[in-house]
Amino acid sequence: MEFDFTSYDSSFDKYESIYKDLLLLTLKHLGLKFDPIISISLIDDKTIHKINKEYRQVDRPTDVISFAFLDNEVDKETLLSSSSLLDLGEIYISLDRAKAQAIEYQHSLHRELAFLFIHGLLHLLGYDHMNEEDEQKMFALQDEILSLGGIKR
Length: 153
What we know:
By secondary structure, the chain is an alpha/beta fold. It has one domain (2-148): 3-Layer(aba) Sandwich (Collagenase (Catalytic Domain)). It is 50% helix and 20% strand. It is built from 6 helices and 4 strands. It has helices spanning 15-30, 45-56, 76-81, 95-104, 109-124, 132-148, and strands at 2-7, 35-43, 64-68, 85-94. Helix 1 links the parallel strand 1 (2-7) and strand 2 (35-43). Helix 1 crosses helix 5 (109-124), helix 4 (95-104) crosses helix 5 (109-124) and helix 5 (109-124) packs across helix 6 (132-148). The mean pLDDT is 92.
């Protein structure tokens, strides 16, 4: 596994190991055997706003943005089921948004940061929530993984 983690606030450096554990738990839960390469950055609202505007043409901050490197692969299913090294992509999480949402949804910041990571990771693995059926499937899977990781609401 290649795991590149950065945080603009060093008090969140412990999330490197938490995210590694959640990554391995997710892959195991989904029955995926490849060796992942992934980059995770914990950033502020100003930075994620800039990324959101530049790459998604949305002029506001957001909580999480994922850049999946498999988006244009013709045979994504074969790659995901292989045992080779596979570069999944990048996840950017706004610590500012996570803090605000933890208060808004009345759960811990730890739970929110875990949720946002898993949400971003599932996007890298090809899940989305563009329609109601896909949203229900993706959000149920997020809840399963959080539960397996011992992360409560």
